[in-house]
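Thread title: Can someone regenerate the structure for this chain?

I was given the following input by a collaborator and told the matching C-alpha cells would be attached. They weren't. Posting the sequence so someone can regenerate them.
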Amino acid sequence: MNSVVRCPTCDRSVEWTESSPWRPFCSERCKLIDLGAWASEQRSIPDGNAEAEDKVREGDESDEVTK
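Best answer:
Regenerated them for you:
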C-alpha cells in the first residue's frame, strides 16, 4: 500500500515510495527551495526558551516605563 503526501513546498501530490527519491518533496527543485528557506532562517524550530525570553523582555520594557 502506497501513501500519498503533499509536497511541503508546492503542495503537489507525491507517492511515498522508494521510487520517489525526493520524498516528501516532489522534485529536487522543491527540496532545494525548502533547504534555502531553512538556510536563510525563514523557517526555524521554535525554542521552548523563546517564550520565557519574550516575557523577560516585556518585563524589562515595563520597568523602563515606570522608572
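The chain has two helices and two strands.
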